[in-house]
User: Fold these one by one.
Assistant:
Number 1:
Amino acid sequence: MNSTMKVERFLSLPVLGVLSVMLFLCYTTIFIFLDDWVGLRTSPGTLNSFFFTLFASLSLFSFFLCVLTDPGHVPPSFYPDVESTNAKDNAEQKKCDKCFGYKPPRTHHCRVCRKCVLKMDHHCLWINNCVGYWNYKAFFDFILYATIASVYSTVLFISCVLQKEWGQIKENSLKFFYVMYGTMVVGLTLTLLSLTGWHIYLILHNMTTIEYYEGNRAKWLAAKSGQSYRHPYNNGAYKNITLILGPTMLKWLCPTSVSHLKDGVSFPTIRDNS
């Protein structure tokens, strides 16, 4: 991807909207609520300002990686190893009827990007990019750090509200601002907590969002025929985490640590461990 295309990724209303919300949240949290609560020049103010800025910066950095990192596309030379795959795998490695190329396992065609994306999770409007094999870790770290920063902001906001003497404040505009801000930050926090919890569940089961819904249908069809279904890439919680976030626990929250990722066209399955 050339530099012009990278810049164009940010020329999107949803992306600019996310950046605006993040910057607004950072400014108001530090320079309004934290300053009003304990003061920025005090030790508690300096300490809280440092930690909040740290999580907000990590969130912003991960967000930039999500937007700029290519999620991964099928190599032009890819051809399925038909002899070593059974009928079920072979069906998954069929040709894409839009790209007219072979699709590796877990690959799906994105109608927005108009390409087949390796281990596609979903197309995310808010990063103007697909979430796939190469940027999923950055996406997870982004929502995790954003959740921590949002929870932190909510705690500082509530602390500021509780110590304020509202009986002496006559400006209705200030009260309205606090109500609107509280509604926004609490709503954002709950949304991010739900999103982070959802992706923790997916990581523990080594699933993508697409595979989750495909798995529900497969379970229903298997139950109708008196059989059971298990997600083929679920290798156990810890192994699933290491396959996605990396083998070193200290690097799980580092969005640039992706040396454990291979080519994105083959994945260990339950059969490989049996």
Number 2:
Amino acid sequence: MPMRMSAMDVQRFSKTFGLLVVLHGAAIAKDDDSWSMKAPTEVRAIEGYPVVLPCSFSHPHHTHPSSMHVVWTLGHGRAATVLFRCTSLNNSQQCQPKPDQDQRYRLEGNHRNHDISLRLNSVTLKDSGRYFCRVELPGHPHTSFENTLGTRLRVEAAPRILSLSAEGSETSGFKAVCHVQGSPLPDVQWLAADGVLEGDTSFSLSQEAIGQYRTSSQLADVKPGGQYICAASNSLGKDQATLYVLPPSPERLTGKSSFSLLVLLLALALGIKLLLALGVGAWVIKRVFSSGDH
């Protein structure tokens, strides 16, 4: 037979059900916010020096996970490159990297204190990019916690001229080409004996999309026998290189001039031989006549 509930029972059931809904909602919110990763959005470094990429995490449990993997990647998703990975098992105080781990990377923080900051030694301009820190829990498939925004590493470097050369020919004319590297991207100027060369004579040829740290500049209508300076500068310093454009080489001999020269040399040789023969003949005749007189 159906159970009849009094008004008091209905009120008591409603309160109990409402309390269960609140508790369940709090558990879900707590589970969603159980882990948090904290890292700066950008870090700047100077080429050739070390840099630390900070990253820390927190979770609601009072005890630290007994085992964990710490992973750092350059990039995110399928295109990501794993740069560093270490493992801490059974409450170990050490996070052990793989034997083939690149020694430029090492864990700077103490993972037992929720600090998994990464240290990079001797950074280069190619290290510029977005880095992501991640914690994985062994034995819990698909359980990992990552800084989803990542940290952008911006490496800065003083300008460096990679190459300076002259291109072209005597018929089409010469131009000077200067390839420069630096971050922030250097400004390029051309200098000559009469001062700064500006206007349409100097313009950008190319600029790398990745890193934005290389550029090229060319100077048209450079004159043979001239001296030109490519000067690059940014907020960290400057660099320059000098190009000497050699004067035109002597005109190459044509086939006709080569033949004329050959004929001239042969004629000269024959002439010398003829003179020598005449000299020898005269000497012989003189000896003959001298012998006849005796």
Number 3:
Amino acid sequence: MAEGANVRQNLQNIPSIFEISAAETLDNLIYPALSKLFDYLGLRVDFKLSDTKRIREEISPIITWILQYMYLRKRGSSFGESFYGLQRTHTKTGELLTRQQELIYASVLTLLPYIERKLQTRAQNHEASQWEEYVLKLFNAYKASKAIHTFLYLIKYAGSHSPIFRALRLTLRYPAQPPKEDKATYIVLKLLEVLAFFLQFIQWWYSNDQRRKVGGTLVNPEPLEEQPDMLKKCNTPKGECPICLMKIDNPTACSVSGYVYCWKCIITRLKNHPTCPVTGYAISMDDLIRIYETN
């Protein structure tokens, strides 16, 4: 009887693949949601290295790393895993994470998705080098191996749901006892868990906003108040680029404003000014749409 109770307890301690998938989905929402929020607020790291080199990078990965490390330090799990009551433990011994492991796992949770998104953006814009395309293939190979590993976990053949967890000798379990933490930490982490709904709302809002840009009104938005880096209100003849004032070469539309530019012109401008040249609205590479003409 005691042996049967122990087996039943171990089975109940193993999360389903649906709970693990939901936790991963929540973790994957953090970076894009924060990225859209900070882009809207105009928060970026921006400084000059030299006369020709300028660093302009988003701060979303830094905030994401801090958030993930905080949860790994206090709960032994990522943000999404903690939300669903899961905890990372050693596969064989059941021991909790060490300080070194917490730093490594926070970096893995943050850097891998960040690098993949950057490479995908460069590949979509035809800017990826040969080695970058090779790294993207490695990411695709990892996703294929993870799908196989997930299936093995589903049929109870594997003890962990992903190759990374297996390589690090980790598994996800429900903790036998709730984590011990002081009242201040408990309040902060609970507030952060409420942030999960906020992140999902931002993602939903952005998705709907993008759909409105594609299928909404065809009237271009009014320009913002004039800024030093903005062009004058567009009065260029039809078929000419508002930047170079010549016939448009490789037409590229801005989904935010609807204005069309030369591909090279708008890409060059975005490196220093992430705004629509005519309207002044904030844009990124993701807002550019190549227009392919047919005969």
Number 4:
Amino acid sequence: MSSLNRELSEDSAFAAGRNSWNRHYHNSVVQPLLTDLYQITMAYAYWKSGKIDDHAVFDLFFRTNPFQGEFTIFAGLEECLKFLDSFHYSETDIEYLKHALPQGIEDEFFEYLSQLTAKDVTLYAIEEGSVAFPRVPLIKVAGPLIIVQLLETTLLTLVNYASLMATNAARYRMVAGKHIHLLEFGLRRAQGPDGGLSASKYSYIGEWNGSPE
């Protein structure tokens, strides 16, 4: 086997292994409590109003292209699907919410949350890696009103940063051409190891008043 063919074969094997790992890996930070407390209070309002059987459809889209550009690369879909597949409030999640939410909320609401899954949610999306444009839905989520409300913040965080990075990478590739190797060192300057949670913590250290999360 020639040196070039051996390198290509090794690269293909590495890519295949990496893609298989990605399909099974689930970031433990991405779970139902990775959201705004506002979303939980909205869910309680719906539950209190007897809207648990109401059906809703939400569109996820953006208003302007990043970097004053002419396009966006849609990314984050795989993580969104993993999140929907694993959506479930654990016992410790429920205990935390009992302390975080105002006193007087019925135990039946927490029991309802403990039984929630995303099995009745249908997600429609354009293909990940597609070129996308403002105000055109990237993802459409349809299902019971309460659960799609609870998905909103997490889906946004999974898509927004991923699409920003993919778009920036695509712009560099267009400038560099196809035959230049581009290597990333994003971990050195990214928003901490857990993104939005780091931003919330250090905003508080900078004497902001709080967060709806």
